[in-house]
Specification:
421 residues, mainly alpha, 2 domains, two-stranded antiparallel ribbon, 2 strands, globular
């Protein structure tokens, strides 16, 4: 076991550290996380529709009558989520380059509109401002700050005297980068239309279609969970590293499910942002709730104190106290249950949905809730609540023999310390 840990640490740690520090990946992650509250609010506006589809009757008639009222906020939240994504990704990357002007984020919004909105005889077609435009927003959010950075580097900007107010100086400083970004966006949009006979978002979706499809699979979910747990074990924030890759796909899947529900159609995607956190990360990475319960009743004083301190945060999905306090990091007793236990849970949850035993995620729901509650809000299926509770208990069974071995070792250390005193 020790040799395995040494080999993994030697080869994995440098790669993971570079990914965690990579400006572009982390900016994408920050941007995706930033729009989650907007998506949750928009998703909750669809809850009446979901309930109506479940129960039917008079409730369905009432919801259908006032559907425009219930769904009104979605036009300005989930239906234009990629606009917000473009802003937050660009703003995050700009700040990493120490360029703190909000105009960079707004430039990304403008460029995104130019690439994703089609002008027709009847008006604007804004289909690709929703989840379908998320991948375009990633490109825009990364390119716009880079163009600004390069122009700043080569002094291709307008610098005003120090006596000019900062807001005015900032506007003129970003004037030329704004113009260049608009020229690039115009060239791309017109080029796609004239030479490819399509739009830029359609072209991107066509190119990414295999990757989008493959991400919503059991194999992809298992890889994501395994790598996340492995990184945590070596002291890196696993989700912070891996989510920079999978979050965009998961959020797009969740938005597609919500759109299907709004149209009265069934959800089709399993791997969504809510699925990951509502089923696979219950009580935190590693699903440590039962481990914390066992620690609360441990004979080892150190484990008992850590367990009691960690109980309330873990109940609400914050388990850093137990991960760093036990510690689980680099703990040989926790290697197998912490890394492979969540993979077992991931397989159970995914297959339960794939075979129709549990409802699929309908939209996004608030996180940081006690086990089972987010899963129920995601699916409106009581079996989802039961599944999560069952998985939490299963993780307790998986952790138990390894916990007892760790506890026995800790008791020996405490006895030895008492003898020396």
């Amino acid at each position: 076991m020790k040799k395995i840990q040494e080999v993994l640490q030697k080869f994995l740690f440098p790669i993971a550290t570079r990914l965690e520090r990579q400006k572009h990946l982390q900016s994408v992650k920050d941007g995706m996380i930033a729009i989650v509250p907007i998506i949750i609010v928009g998703s909750f506006c669809l809850v009446p529709t979901g309930i109506a589809n479940l129960v039917g009757g008079g409730i369905a008639e009432f919801v259908a009558k006032y559907a425009d009222v219930f769904s009104f906020p979605t036009y300005f939240t989930t239906n234009i989520m990629s606009l917000f994504s473009a802003f937050f990704i660009a703003d995050s990357l700009a700040k990493r380059y120490d360029m703190r002007s909000p105009l960079i984020g707004m430039t990304a919004v403008l460029v995104h509109l130019m690439l994703c909105v089609s002008i027709t005889e009847t008006g604007w077609s804004v289909t690709y401002l929703a989840a379908e435009g998320l991948f375009v927003s990633i490109i825009v959010g990364l390119v716009v700050p880079e163009v600004t950075r390069l122009m700043k580097k080569y002094n291709m900007v307008i610098k005003m005297p120090e006596s000019v107010p900062p807001m005015v100086a900032d506007s003129f400083f970003n004037l030329l980068p704004l113009a260049v970004n608009i020229i690039i966006a115009t060239a791309v949009a017109i080029g796609c239309r004239e030479f490819a006979g399509t739009t830029f978002p359609e072209l991107i979706i066509h190119l990414l279609a295999p990757a989008i499809t493959s991400m919503d699979s059991l194999g992809a979910v298992l890889i994501v969970v395994f790598l996340t747990q492995l990184l945590w074990f070596f002291g890196l924030h696993g989700a912070a590293v891996t989510s920079s890759v999978w979050a965009a796909f998961a959020i797009a899947n969740g938005a597609a499910n919500a759109a299907a529900v709004a149209a009265g159609e069934p959800a089709t995607h399993i791997f969504t942002y809510g699925f990951y956190y509502g089923f696979l990360q219950v009580s935190g990475s590693g699903i440590t709730f039962m481990l914390v319960v066992m620690m609360c009743f441990s004979k080892a004083k150190s484990l008992k104190s850590i367990g009691r301190i960690s109980m309330v945060p873990t109940l609400f999905g914050i388990n850093e106290p137990v991960i760093f306090g036990t510690p689980i990091i680099m703990n040989p007793y926790m290697f197998i249950p912490f890394i492979f236990g969540p993979c077992v849970v991931a397989a159970i949850c995914y297959l339960a949905m794939q075979f129709g035993l549990v409802g699929l995620p309908l939209w996004e729901a608030p996180g940081f809730l006690p086990p089972g509650f987010q899963a129920f809000l995601l699916t409106l299926d009581w079996k989802a609540f039961a599944l999560v509770i069952g998985c939490v208990l299963l993780m307790g069974v998986i952790y138990y023999p390894f916990f007892k071995a760790m506890e026995a070792d800790e008791l020996k250390k405490e006895e030895l310390a008492e003898e020396n005193n």
